[in-house]
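User: structure tokens for this one?
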Amino acid sequence: MKVALIQLAYGDGESVADRTARVADLVRAQAGHDLVVLPELWPAGGFDYTAWAERAEPVDGPVAQALAAAAKDARVTLHGGSIIERGDPVSAEDRGLWNTSLVFSPDGELVATYRKIHRFGFGEGEPSLLDAGEHLVVVDVPVADGGSVPVGLSTCYDLRFPELYRRLLDRGAEVFAIPAAWPRKRVAHWTLLGQARAVEDQCVVLQCNTAGTHAGHEMGGHSQVVDATGKVLAAAGLDEEVLSIDIDTAATPQWRRTFPVLPDRRLS
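Assistant:
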């Protein structure tokens, strides 16, 4: 499976429309990959809380339409990072706003959405502005040899909760795709936790972070690809960068057979 992680950099001076057009062009440039991944909340601003309600849109809104067209033009499965989704509240107490990941097929169809389950902010930020997701999502990503790879979806702060990844594992995931807006001051946690999730679940981890500085927050970059043994196969720096890598899809099940730790689980 050939994967591209687009570690996007942006600041406060770039409009959402200009950023969306730039991102769509970056996606089109990744033709030949099976899966392309973007960072969390790149249209709304990962820490630009005050703009979220204004920039919220439905899952078929302008940003989604631009991403769908780019995925179709490039003939890739596109994990579009995430948007602030506006929809009908699930209950009377809800706001109708979520941090929602969008996945598009090479035909430009929306094939999966994931509403972030763990909201960052310790009572402020996401918890005070957004509703929590409730459902786990694993999506099959087609690859060039005619097969497919099951990819579990999660977002940023989710990375700190290993039980989520155990459940994705139990649903068949062999790869975890994790878009993020993770700040530089905690980037050591970002890289360490990615390796931990790979080792404990014997899954490939794709971590696509944000670069640049926005809303007063310097972002951490350091996107990485970690194989199922915990080895870092590719890593980015602090600036905008595209990580492109071929992943051996046979290596994960082979490692699970060679070092069969998962069947020894006693607790669920």
